[in-house]
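Render this sequence as a predicted structure.
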Amino acid sequence: MAVLAVSLVDRVAEILTRYNMLPPGTKIGVAVSGGADSVVLLHVLRRLQEQFQIGLAVVHVNHQLRGEESDGDEHFVCELAQALDVPVFCESSVPPPGNLEEEARSARRAFFFRVRQREGLARIALGHTRSDQAETVLFRLLRGSGTAGLAGMRFVTSDGFIRPLLELNRDDIRRWARAEGITWREDSSNNDARFTRNRIRSETLPALQKSYNSNLEAVLANTAAVAAAEEEFWAREVAAVAESVVRPHRLGIQADADAVSRYVRRNRRTDKWLTGIRDYTPEQLA
């Protein structure tokens, strides 16, 4: 048991350090739904609190979609926060009509931003795992996303969200929780086949793993990492070029056509990439 505990906590600590997720001396919000992943995230951050010199607060949204079960989740989260001596902030928010998953996500984000501003939280930690990342990448691939979509979820976002569990497998997290005697709540809606993500989790991914690649989860997560690195590279390249060829205008922005033309002539590789031509030989690209 001790080996498992040290292993998982140390892995999270390494991710926190590598991505500079927790500025020392700040307070961090932890989004806790009551499920295994977010509950483990809270327990791990509580154990690392002194090492990283941070304060913690729990944030929870009750969408009231599952009646007594939703209220039970909120009660469970509040009791957990009290047991760990962590302040908790809850809100009830019924998603408006539309795409239920997207509307609920938007409501949570809006609440997290309000609490973050009001309580001075430097970051909001989310409990997404490598398993969630794989499902996201496969979902977007099936939907026809480009590189930006295949980059999946980021470890750190520009609007203050962090994902310390994004390299950890969902099953490993549950094994650790059981070994530590940590309990959590199961969301019955995760079994609802009306939701595409649930079908991908329970049907599509397992079938692909069984028939094609038992390591598919890691493959998809690695695809996200490669796509994210490419997106970040081109974002830096475009930003650098934009400084010299784009200027503000009262209607938005203006591009200097002559400057763009000079840049393209100087950078033949970029010219070929921009025109979408993919069949050049290595000699032609040299």
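Summary. The chain is about 60% helix and 10% strand. Residues 1-6, 275-286 have pLDDT under 50 and may be disordered.
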